[in-house]
């Protein structure tokens, strides 16, 4: 069995008011005492501090859903790493497919964001994944290679193992479709091989998550795979009972 500590992250996307975020945390915490996994909640920006306060002293860490690579400046609507730290965040999701597809996030921007997160003491949860069309063309490996190589290109070799990578096949996000455990493990293993090509030690240390319609019914099978070190959970993370069940399966 791997000694890598699993990460189970709840990506709420654009859901939950401040009040709802607090209620969720109050319902979740009693359900996940003494867990082995690193549990992360990724609320909307406005609820960051609320979740930090509601989970203080508990089993949960807090992540933002995006971050700009510059420390400050004329970037309306953006937030910096320092701002996230000031709000109490310890991690940040970068390169989610919705950011790439809907908001024009580029490989070049991500190549700057990932090292900036590390330099500022934030855990980067760096997302990669192929579309259904790319998978049908048998392009999965090529797409993953491009995304991983670009996103980690400015990360020093000595720090590669500190990044968390989330493999999220776009065709499985919010669709009800899920990669089979074999498909998910194959992709995560391929991602690990890309990191190992730069540093064998980093390849063994780096944690690679699966995301895409993860729910209590399939969590144990996915999380039991040697190459899968946790999950980035979307829809099922909005319900404290469902999310707790996934955490306990890790």
Q: What is the CATH architecture annotation?
A: Alpha-Beta Barrel
The residue-averaged pLDDT reads 95
Summed up, the domain count is 1
Cα distance, first to last residue? 13 Å
User: What is the strand arrangement across the widest sheet?
Assistant: 7-6-5-4-3-2-1-8
- What is the CATH C level class, in words? Alpha Beta
Number of helices: 11
**C-alpha geometry:** globular
Number of strands: 8
**CATH third-level topology:** TIM Barrel
Largest sheet data: 8 strands, parallel
**CA radius of gyration:** 17 Å
Quickly give the structural class. Answer: alpha/beta
Order of helices and strands: EHEHEHEHHEHHEHHEHEH
Approximately how much beta-strand content do the residues carry? 5-15%
Low-confidence stretches: none
- Name the CATH superfamily assignment: Aldolase class I
Which key features would you list for this structure?
250 residues, alpha/beta, 8-stranded parallel β-sheet, TIM Barrel, 8 strands
